[in-house]
Amino acid sequence: MMMEPALAINSLSLSIRGKPILRGVSANVGAGEVWSIIGPNGAGKSTLLKCLMRIHGGWTGKVLLRGRDLAVFSQRELARQVAYVPQAGGNQAFPFTVREYVRLGRYAWSGFFGSPHPEDATRVENAIERTDIGGLAQRTLDTLSGGERQKVFLAAALAQGSGLLLLDEPAAFLDYRHQAEVAALIRRLNQDCGVTIVSVTHDVNAALQAGGQVLALRDGEAVWNGRADDLADANVLQSIFETDFRFLEDPSTGLRLVVPQGERISA
After folding, report:
1. Domains along the sequence of the chain with CATH
2. Which pTM was predicted?
3. Please, are residues 79 and 162 in contact by the beta-carbon 8 Å criterion?
């Protein structure tokens, strides 16, 4: 018997002020899978996530979340099923300590008049431990680096208790060390906690390293959908990005990595 997908996107289209942004995008995301959404700038990647979170309305098509139409979920029900983590950049002023912010992730489970859920404390401390941010717990978010703040956002999403995690370029604006740490953390959330991951990235190599499945968008349309192992192909990448790539092999993992083809600039 085939299992029902965690997320089924069927012919999702969106226009904003008469301009088509997404055009008939479809994909079936299985429970526990890892998906990367790639494509050129302006392809509609982040917009697709915002439609799934109902941040953007007015789209057409159909989205099923665990077999139920996305439209029938209350906002609280949706938050119990799906967590959204934005990019780490920006100058938002969060007047919270790390522990307070992670506790906010439990809002969907609070009772009448905001009364706490019996599992709140355990879920919060477990999320802080799993994301290794215990040493930051008493600091305020405005004192953290972008990489530290992204870990806090992931901890809040984990505390939320949702089975599906939508990530909007989780490694954007981060240095190499924090990129590696965030990628390892996302991998653990999937492998150890069974969280389904759908992550937007502009980095083809990040999608290759994440493994799983890849959905490629260009000009709002799905132009490729397949296994990450099949992405490192000259014809596939040219069809997505309309440029040529060179291929390198990672000597430690054997993973095929890509770089855009270009002329060397002489000193």
Report:
1. 7-260 (3.40.50.300)
2. 0.91
3. yes
